[in-house]
Design goal:
Layout (H helix, E strand, L loop, with lengths): L3 H13 L2 H8 L3 H15 L4 E3 L4 E3 L1 H29 L3 E7 L7 H13 L3 E7 L2 H9 L5 E4 L8 E16 L12 H4 L4 E3 L7 H12 L6 E4 L3 H9 L5 E4 L10 E5 L6 E9 L5 H17 L1
Parallel strand pairs: 3-4, 3-5, 7-8
Antiparallel strand pairs: 1-2, 5-11, 6-9, 6-10, 6-11
Length: about 300
Amino acid sequence: MLDLRKLRYFLTVAEELHFGRAALRLHLAQPPLTRQISALEAELGFKLFDRTSRTVSLTAQGRSFLPYARGVLEQVELAQVIAGKLAAGTAGQLALGYVSSIALSDLFSQTIQTFAQRFPDVQLTLVECASGNLGAQVADGRLDIGLSRLLPQSNAVQALSLGEERLVAAVSSDSPLARESVVSLAQLSAYPLILFPADYVSGLNQSIEQLYRHHAVPLRAGPIGRQITSIIALVAAGQGVALVPQCTQSLMNKGVTYRPLVEADACAKLLVLTAAERKGVLVDAFLTVIAETLQQDR
């Protein structure tokens, strides 16, 4: 195995093409440097330098070997830098789970952008999940952080509230509701309501169902959409109405009109989930970025 120290000596001599100057840079006496280069040449089986009493030049083999030696040393230096960042918690991997209704929010995109800029050596993996699975994946370590609208059922998961997001009505542009400036739950109750599947244990579904119960308005269940985009597509197709977070309005689907709700309590939770016992430096850093983004938006 090649000695990294000897490779550094070779690189320095190749840059200086003078053993005396190279020795000064390396804080060595010239004779030991000469011996180390000779030993490296013996290991390699070819001469690296042609030497006379006045000049030093790279041999053809030395010129060919130089970029490989430089590449090895650069990789070693990079490994040392990354090791330091890993030790400091500024490099590594972070798995972020989220529900589809959050992915459209400015908070989501701004937080990810800021985090990626601040921690370029962190590999951030994004995983879209149903609410019912999100907490379990945070608890067992498959996810480091979860962005959800559903409070976890396990003590192994901590939930931090990021506030609430207003709900708006998504209606077909052909519907009479599209001509209203605002709509009420009573008006919406005349139409099938498009929701996520029951097996998603959706936090958004939960908020909507609680809202209907609180206002004593009958909920007429309609088709099922497995993503927020599919729910909006069903609305556009005239299959019903939907209550969605206001960030969904960024989906400017043809045939869909968004209208605010009369009910002031028409909101959905926004939560960040972390494992109670496994918080690391990167998790704390991500939470800091979320907090900063929220503060900027207020």
